[in-house]
Write a structure and sequence with these properties.
The complex is a heterodimer of chains A (461) and B (501).
Chain A: H1 6-12, H2 15-18, H3 20-39, H4 42-45, H5 48-70, H6 77-101, H7 108-111, H8 113-139, H9 169-181, H10 200-205, H11 222-228, H12 247-258, H13 275-284, H14 289-296, H15 305-313, E1 317-320, E2 328-331, H16 344-350, E3 359-363, E4 385-387, H17 395-400, E5 409-411, H18 419-423, E6 433-435, H19 443-453, E7 458-460
Parallel strand pairs in A: 2-3, 3-4, 4-5, 5-6, 6-7
Antiparallel strand pairs in A: 1-2
Chain B: H1 4-8, H2 13-44, H3 46-50, E1 80-86, H4 92-95, H5 112-115, E2 139-142, E3 147-150, E4 163-170, H6 176-185, H7 195-203, E5 213-217, E6 243-245, H8 266-284, H9 287-310, H10 317-323, H11 333-345, E7 350-355, H12 364-388, E8 395-400, E9 404-410, E10 419-423, E11 427-433, E12 440-442, E13 444-445, E14 452-454, E15 457-458, H13 459-469, E16 479-481, E17 484-486
Helix pairs in contact in B: 8-9, 11-12
The chains are: A mainly alpha (461), B alpha/beta (501).
Chain lengths: 461, 501
């Protein structure tokens, strides 16, 4: 959804550029004042109103642009609010300072020397605070202190895992949850209840209420008791207003404490796990089977628009299986090729060739496709579902059909194939389901084939 | 001002006079109201005027359903679905949810610990006792999956290994209309789009000659009324509404040519009408004008495609025998199942059957048997037929009602007869085909089939799972209407991953 129009965001992105103008102008006004006093130079002070005016105006522009930028929703609301109000305060006070310095506004108290310089100093302080929070928004709150030469341990980089067995239960599963849901209050610098999840040692140390967990006994573990309380309970964690842990997340932590004995190094593959835990863990690690499948196929080249247009003009229906994946479901509606235009078969099927890597599902049933036409499928390396039903195809067609490495389902119902086609199925190594109702294949053929070849293919008659 | 004048000016003098009059009025209306409207339009559309409209980035790619919605979100399993809606609330206790312990409790009052003060309908709330009624229909286990099916459904028992039963369905509503509306639209109040409309809106059509969403109501049901809004589009554009096919001479009303008109100049008429409508569209930009134009065109194509698809003469006798004798009588449940299969074969995305009559407040065993007799053979035949045609790969079959029925008898309980009231807290549905585990049973109820004790599946969870099978993340299929973003699952729903194959 694109509700904030692009032009707003376009201008908004000038905010980081423009903010430096008020910083310069306003700080310069402060320097002029200090310098003027020090050198007893009243002339130089004449430039202060102009400097303040430019500072205030550019601050106003920066505020507007900043607001536009904030509409993108990319920023943490809490930090954003602080920056937002400090920015507005700076601008308002800068305008006030200008009005006073240019004598447009007469506030006697503030015109006295000390109060006046205090206003300018306040502007500088506000500027610094606003700037700091702004910087945190852009670079993250640990940007400034990340390379502090003392007191900060280096974070270990986590190696990404490709299979769930290799995953370390604590580092890959439990710790990300703790860091996500707990560490904003329980970290090295902010230890609510004297508990910190910043390191293994800190966790083992526990907090005010004692140990964080008891290895092997989730029921007696304080950190698990707290997240399982009624949400309105005073001791429920995380406290009101923060996102509570999900059922899966709690299950994972319990699993680590109970089955994993709270071991910080133990691997997922080395301990027993239930189906639910496996499912939750797979999902957490982004190893979901379905996403993996489409990820693996995501590199298919984009077909040319002309090729697609030609196909559509020839009567094919094309649908993208996953948005912007370049993976297609292609249908030639039944009866598009009939006895009258039977010579078109070859021509129409040829049109599929430019998309041979893109076609995942293909339905060409009941279109007078004959044996020789099946050689067309050479190089259809991603094809998973092929529907050839009700075409005059015989065993010869299956023998002419090239190897299809990813084919999982093949529909041959209402064709003229017989049992010798079953022998050819090994050219479809991934085949799981075959549909051969209303063909010359009988139940006995299937039985014989299955016992002989020890085949796992489900044959539907 | 606009090009009405050249294109539409008639040659008749009288008419021209009238037209002039209209023009003056038009002028006044457009200058007074029009200016205001322009100003208001400018205000409201400021966003659009500023942004480059993203949908126009790849105009040519829209031709293969890149509809700008970013759908499907993930790899789909199902391309189409047929939803066999058993309206009235079929009794899970007489069909699938086998509760042998109830026999010993016959006639005893339902313990309060089971009911737990649950809200009842006005029909049985004032009963002084809630006597437990065990099913008088016997159950047996079938198939490799050893699924329990009652003797009321002998045909279905042959295909249990293809079926995924969900015995822990739950809904929020306790009366028919809100409950059906809730199942079909995700809200108990009317006005939201139904499942089929969401699918049509989200995924578009695979067959330009037939509607994406078709509903069939069986004529041999009878019982609680159904309303066409159940297949309505709600606030989605009108072309996504379900089209009802009826039994009888005209499957779709007003589709055939009127008497003494052969339709030879209809194409011209539609072309001219299209011109008029696009002028109208240029001036007002109301999306409903587009919807109407596409509906006219669809109706025109349906004049050929509907008679073709409803023609059963191609079907061999053994197919009719498979679906049962009723299937030769158009409009019956069995005939609708067969028609449903034909529509699915033509790549109609969502076929919605309704069978009324499952509302057994009285005479529950008899009523269940009677309705099973009307539907069982066809249900099983549809499953077998789709399987043998290889359509099981990408077609989803759904069977279920709007709620279940109570374990206690409504009204008088005798050894052989009893009634059952509406029960939303536990009932059975089943699915089969694309993407669901075959020969699988999910969820459990207590010994009274009253409360779910394991893996509850709420109506919203079912809807989320259905969309998931079509490659849609139910949290991301959204339509903004009157300032609020709407989803089929509102703010609820979890995909039931455990039933996915």
């Amino acid at each position: 959804m694109n509700e904030v129009s692009d032009i707003v965001l376009f201008f908004g992105r000038f905010h980081p550029l423009v903010v430096h103008l008020p910083i310069g102008f306003l700080f310069f006004a402060f320097i002029l004042e200090v310098y003027g006093r020090w050198q007893k130079d009243d002339k130089i002070k004449l430039a202060i109103p102009l400097s303040l005016f430019l500072g205030a105006i550019s601050a106003l522009v920066a505020c507007v642009l900043g607001y536009m930028l904030s509409l993108s929703g990319d920023y943490d609301q809490g930090a954003l609010d602080t920056h937002f109000w400090f920015g507005i305060a700076t601008t308002v006070i800068a305008f006030g300072a200008w009005l006073i310095s240019s004598r447009k506004l007469k506030v006697e108290v503030l015109e006295k020397g000390k109060a006046y310089i205090a206003t300018l100093a306040l502007i500088v302080v506000l500027l610094s605070i606003t700037g700091h929070y702004g910087g945190n928004l852009t670079h993250g709150s640990d940007y400034l202190t990340a390379y502090l030469p003392f007191g900060k341990e280096q974070k270990e980089k986590l190696v990404a895992v490709t299979s769930i067995e290799e995953a370390q239960v604590f580092n890959h599963l439990v710790n990300p949850i703790l860091q996500d849901k707990c560490a904003s209050c329980h970290n090295a610098s902010k230890k609510k209840g004297q508990l910190s999840f910043a390191s293994k040692e800190a966790i083992l140390k526990g907090g005010k209420s004692g140990a964080a967990f008891v290895a092997g006994d989730a029921g007696a573990s304080e950190m698990i008791r707290r997240v399982l309380l009624d949400t309105h309970h005073d001791e429920f964690m995380p406290p009101e207003g923060k996102t509570p842990l999900t059922k899966e997340e709690i299950a994972i932590i319990e699993y680590w404490v109970n089955t994993g004995q709270g071991d910080f190094e133990i691997k997922f593959g080395n301990i027993e796990s239930s189906e639910e835990i496996k499912l939750a863990a797979t999902e957490m690690l982004g190893l979901d089977a379905s996403t993996k499948e489409s990820m693996a196929l995501a590199n298919v080249p984009s077909p040319s628009e002309t090729d697609i247009k030609t196909l559509i003009d020839a009567g094919f229906k094309i649908r993208e299986l996953v948005a912007d994946s370049n993976l297609f479901d292609v249908i030639l509606p039944a009866g598009t090729i009939n006895q009258e235009n039977i010579t078109d078969v070859k021509i129409k099927l040829e049109l599929l060739k430019p998309l041979k890597k893109n076609i995942i599902w293909l339905s060409v049933g009941d279109n007078n496709i004959s044996d020789n036409d099946l050689s067309i499928f050479d190089g259809f390396e991603n094809l998973q579902l092929l529907k050839l039903e009700k075409n005059p195809i015989t065993d010869k067609g299956i023998s002419l059909c090239p190897e299809l490495k990813k084919l999982t389902a093949l529909n041959l119902f209402g064709t003229k194939v017989s049992k010798s086609s079953l022998e050819l199925l090994n050219k479809f190594p991934k085949l799981e389901k075959l549909y051969v109702w209303n063909t010359n294949i009988t139940k006995e053929d299937v039985q014989a084939y299955r016992t002989q070849n020890n085949s796992e293919v489900t044959v539907n008659l | 001002m606009c090009d009405h004048h050249d294109k539409l000016r008639s040659n008749n003098k009288d008419l021209q006079k009238v037209e002039k009059m209209f023009d003056r009025r038009e002028f006044l209306t457009k200058t007074s109201l029009g200016l205001g409207a322009i100003a208001l339009g400018g205000l409201l559309n400021a966003d659009k005027a500023w942004s480059n409209v993203k949908n126009n980035v790849k105009p040519d790619l829209e031709m293969f359903s890149r509809n700008g919605l970013g759908l499907p979100h993930h790899m789909p399993k199902a391309k189409r679905a047929i939803y066999l809606f058993q309206s009235g609330g079929p009794s899970q206790l007489e069909l699938f949810d086998y509760k042998p312990k109830l026999k010993d409790l016959f006639g005893q009052d339902l313990p309060e610990s089971v009911r737990q003060g649950q809200r009842l309908t006005g029909m049985s709330a004032d009963q002084t006792t809630f006597p437990i009624a065990a099913s008088t229909i016997e159950f047996k286990q079938y198939g490799e999956s050893r699924a329990w099916v009652s003797d009321a459904m002998p045909y279905l028992s042959e295909v249990v290994d293809d079926i995924c039963f969900i015995k822990s369905m739950q809904t929020d509503a306790i009366n028919h209309d809100p409950a059906i509306t809730f199942f079909q639209t995700g809200s108990q109040q009317p006005g939201r789009p139904s499942i089929g409309s969401w699918l049509s809106y989200g995924l578009g059509s695979d067959n330009d000659n037939l509607p994406t969403f078709i509903s069939l109501v069986s004529k041999n049901g009878g019982g609680q009324p159904l309303y066409s809004r159940l297949w309505g589009n709600g606030f989605l554009p009108t072309e996504h509404q379900g089209v009802q096919f009826r039994s009888g001479k005209d499957p779709v009303l007003y589709l055939s040519d009127p008497e003494n008109y052969d339709g030879h100049d209809r194409r011209n008429m539609l072309d001219y009408l299209g011109k008029l409508n696009s002028i109208q569209n240029d001036s007002y930009g109301d999306p409903e004008i587009n919807a109407r134009m596409s509906q006219y065109e669809m109706a025109f194509r349906m004049q050929t495609s509907v008679p073709e698809v409803t023609d059963m003469s191609d079907e061999p006798d053994y197919i009719f025998e498979m679906y049962g004798e009723d299937s030769r009588d158009p409009g019956t449940y069995a005939a609708n199942c067969l028609l449903g299969r034909k529509l699915l074969e033509k790549d109609v995305k969502f076929v919605q059957l309704y069978h009324q009559g499952w509302d057994q407040h009285l005479g529950c065993p008899g009523g269940v048997k009677m309705n099973s007799k009307k539907t069982d053979q066809a249900n099983a035949a549809l499953i077998k037929d789709l399987k043998q045609r290889g359509m099981f790969e990408d077609t989803l079959i759904i069977w279920g009602g709007e709620f279940g029925r109570t374990v206690y008898s409504q009204g008088k309980l005798t050894a052989s007869d009893y009634g059952r009231d509406h029960h939303p807290k536990a009932f059975t549905m089943f699915m089969a085909g694309a993407g669901v585990k075959p020969g699988f049973t999910y969820g459990e109820t207590d010994d009274f089939s009253y409360n779910v004790v394991k893996d509850p599946v709420h109506t919203h969870d079912f809807q989320a799972t259905l969309l998931h099978l079509f490659g849609i993340d139910h949290e991301r299929l959204i339509y903004k209407h009157q300032g609020r973003r709407f989803r089929l699952t509102d703010v609820h729903g979890h995909v039931v991953k455990d039933i996915l194959s």
